[in-house]
Amino acid sequence: MTEIEILAYGSIILLFSSLLQGLTGFGFSLFAVPLLTLLLPPRTVIPVLIVYSLMVNVAVLISAKGHLDLKRQGLLLVGGLAGLPLGSYLLRNLPVFHLKMIIGAVVLLLAVILLVRPDTKIVKTDSKAVNLPVGFLSGLLCSSVSLSGPPVIIFYAFRKVNKQYFRGNLALFFLVLNFFTLILYSSSGMLTGVVLRYAWQFLPALLLGMSTGIYLTRFLPERSFQRVVLALLLIIGIMTVATNF
Asked: What tens digit of pLDDT does each residue of 23-70 get?
C-alpha cells in the first residue's frame, strides 16, 4: 500500500472515529485501532491515537463540563493509573491478539445483555469492589492496546446515566489516562519521529470529525443516545473480534 493510500484511508477512519467520540464521548480508539492496524503497525498506531485521544477528550470535556461526578471518578482513576504501567509493559513485550479477542467477546456479551434486558443495572456502583477493578482494567487496556473504553463504557451504560454525564465523565477519565500514558510512552522511547509525522498528517481529519460530533450531540435525544451507545457496543465487539482473524 502506498503512502498516499495510507493517508487517504487513515483520514477516513479517523474522521468517522473522532465524529463518534465527539458525539457520544467514546468510540474513537475502539473503532480506529482495529482498522488503522490494517494500514500501519500497532506500535505506530497506538501512540498516535493516544495523542489524538488527549485532544478529543479535552474538547468533549469542555462541552460537558457541568456534569462531572468527581467522587466516582476518583475511584476509577486510582484504579486506572495503577493499571497503566502493566499495560505499557504488555505493549512493548507481548502480542495483543489474545487480549483484543477477549475484549471483543466480553463487549459483545454485555451489549447483548443490555439489548435483551435493557433495565439491567450494576448494583453498588459506588463500591470500591466495582470502581477500582473497572478503572484498573481500563488503565491496562489504555496503555497496552489503546482500548481503555470497554470496561468504563459498560460501567456507565449499565448505570443508565444521561448523555452529558456519560460524555463528560468518560472524557475526564480518558483524558487523565491519556496524559499519563503519553508520559510512559515518552519515557519508553515510543513517541518516535514516525509517530509524530503521522499524528501531524492525520490531524485535519481528526479536527473535522471531532467538531462535527460535538455539534451534532445537542440534537440527539436521550433515548436515541442510549440506542446509539448500545449499537456502538455491539459493532465494536464484532469488529474487535473479526479483525483478529
From this structure: 877 778 777 877 888 899 888 988 898 899 888 889 888 888 777 877
Helices 3-24 and 28-36, axial angle in degrees (round to 10): 160
CB 84 within 8 A of CB 181: yes
User: What pTM was estimated for this model as a whole?
Assistant: 0.72
pLDDT tens profile 194-211? 999 999 999 999 999 999
Largest CA distance in the chain: 52
Q: Cα–Cα distance between 160 and 236 in angstroms, integer?
A: 19
pLDDT tens profile 113-122: 666 655 555 5
pLDDT digits (tens, 9 = 90+) for 169-186: 888 888 888 888 888 888
Phi/psi at 40 (nearest 5 deg)?
A: -135, 160
Q: CB atoms < 10 A from the CB of 20, how many?
A: 22
Pairwise CA distance, residues 89 & 77, whole Å: 19
Report the domain count for the chain.
Answer: 1
Given a cut of 80, whether residue 227 has pLDDT beyond it is no
Q: How many CA atoms, within 13 angstroms, populate the side-chain half-sphere of residue 55?
A: 20
Q: What domain range is 66 assigned to? A: 3-242
173 contact partners, CB below 8 Å, separation of at least 6: 73, 76, 77, 80, 135, 138, 152
